[in-house]
Amino acid sequence: MLASAAVHRPNRNRFLIVVAIAPWLLVACQPPSDDMMASSEETGEPPGDDTECPGYPLPAVGSGTCEVTTPGTAGTLLRGTVLGPDGILRGGEVLVRSDGRIACVDCDCSDADGFAGVTEINCGDAVISPALINPHDHITFANNAPIGEGVDRYEHRHDWRKGDNGHEQLDYDGGASGDEILGAELRFIMGGATAAASAGGENGLLRNLDSSGKLEGLTSPVASSDTFPLDDADGQQLDQGCNYGGEPTTAGSITGAAYLPHIAEGINAAAANEFTCSSSRGPNNLMGPQTALIHGVALRPADYAEMTQAGAMLVWSPRSNIVLYGNTAPVTAMDALGLPISLGTDWVSSGSMNMLRELACADQLNRDYFDAHFGDRELWAMATSNAARATGAGSLLGSLEAGFVGDIAVFKSSGGAQDYRAVIDANVDDVVLVLRGGVPLYGDDALLASDGVDGAACETFDVCGVAKRACVAQDTGGAATLAQIRGAIENSYPLFFCGVPDEEPSCVPSRPGAYSGVAQGDGDGDGVADGDDDCPTVFNPVRDFEDAQGDHDSDGAGDVCDPCPLDANDGCAT
């Protein structure tokens, strides 16, 4: 059996010596082992085992992607390519007991408790993954349509919220009905997710991790999503000082559950000042191991180094950042300093309609603008184990491990997309099965209708030419139906698309007069000519609060491509 492992495994191919920046800032490291270095250098991602189990490859599936080989009455056994916590099991097994908990992840689970009477499902070369988790969405705005290329490029979130500083205010409505919210929850489920910190939600379907009573049986503390930790909902923008509203969130009010504050959303000095006022340099230090800071576009190396030291992490929403500000969080530099990163959709207006589309944006940026800094496994972890940790559910969700909850998604392996890439490249028709606590929510029609799967009562519909079922009425106890919630959500935007969604917010960084994507002589599309660029292969535009590209340690290498952004001597380089 695979040994259990910590939810977050830092990028071990990037190491830091101890650097004293200020009394409040220390960053530590460990030297790499030889085999660790070899694996990292060859794959560009943290090392992981790749095991071929006896009997691999599995027998071909008769029809479809997965089929029941032995109907049972208690629990489910899935066989396929298992994306486990320590690597890949080819021809591996995942056993989910009848109580919804994972009992075994191994090449052979026949001796595990709970095996007797299970329904056995062969998925051939399909990929068995933890279900995706969305650590940030505003689901009560699900009744809006997306803004496409955007109506403006802003410097601060209050500019689009309030129409401040000469900008055009976005037109949006936060009054989604219960059926529209359930429709948005089904959107996420169709993309392989079972849980979200969505600042709202309804009973049934998605686990709403920050809404009390809507965790769908999960025994986890309710996360706290904090949209205005500085009490600045009225639109205050301060370049310095912390005289925002009179009731800011204080460190003492954070109870220990996951805390998700919006901080530094923008590219101007006012956005950067928000972190100062929420850190050890301000009156209310909100950084701690329970904190997953949302957005962080305006952060600087000393900021995310402090976050790393405090045990905090980032929730990255690249699509929304790009279409609103033309820029996003400096995630390559954050990663170099060991800051864990998760991935969230933000909202349908400027973000992604499901987690697969947010992964597609992150993957595009990584390929075209970040010099392939992140490996496939790292991108996948942003939507699974790191997202679970961000929402305080890291001991229950986000990993296929014995004792964890059986929230699982199975993805078709096709067109050369295998392993982690099968998840990253997937569309809704490639999602073969979604289980929440071992219970089906969505999947292929024939599979869910099979004996022993408990999906025969789920509602059928066509998804991109593939017969699917969604278990809406079954999971909501008849309070809603597929037709009902689909009709509601599609008043504003379709439930799903079979390719790139219509009017999807742009994931190409652009700001009028500054830059508009990769161009001749500007290979990273940041508006700085390659010959003058301190990071010519990694997107690094000059932000409004900076006079030049960020180079915190003044060593000539920009922060976003510097293996040691806080060390001019690069003593931490491997």
Describe the structure in your own words:
- There is one protein chain.
- The chain is built from 14 helices and 23 strands.
- With 574 residues, the protein is α/β, with parallel strands linked by helices.
- It has a domain at 133-387: Metal-dependent hydrolases (TIM Barrel), CATH 3.20.20.
- A hairpin with a 2-residue loop joins strand 1 and strand 2 (25-27).
- Helix 3 crosses helix 14 (482-489).
Strand and helix map with partners:
Layout: E1 19-22, E2 25-27, H1 34-43, E3 49-52, E4 67-70, E5 76-84, E6 87-96, E7 102-106, E8 119-130, E9 132-134, H2 157-162, H3 178-190, E10 193-196, E11 207-208, E12 224-226, E13 259-263, H4 269-277, E14 292-295, H5 301-310, E15 313-316, H6 318-325, H7 331-336, E16 341-343, H8 355-368, H9 376-382, H10 385-390, E17 408-411, H11 419-424, E18 431-436, E19 439-444, H12 445-449, E20 459-463, E21 466-470, H13 472-475, H14 482-489, E22 510-511, E23 515-516
Parallel strand pairs: 3-6, 5-8, 9-10, 10-11, 12-13, 13-14, 14-15, 15-16
Antiparallel strand pairs: 1-2, 4-8, 5-6, 6-7, 8-17, 17-18, 18-19, 19-21, 20-21, 22-23
Helix pairs in contact: 3-14
Search tags:
disordered N terminus; alpha/beta; five-stranded parallel beta sheet; TIM Barrel; 574 residues; 14 helices; eleven-stranded mixed beta sheet; 23 strands; globular
CATH-derived architecture of the domain at 133-387: Alpha-Beta Barrel
- In CATH terms, the superfamily of the domain at 133-387 is Metal-dependent hydrolases
What do the pLDDT scores average to? 91
The CATH class name of the domain at 133-387 reads Alpha Beta
Overall geometry comes to globular
Into which percent range does the helicity of residues fall? Answer: 10-25%
What's the number of helices?
Answer: 14
Q: What share of residues are in beta strands?
A: 15-25%
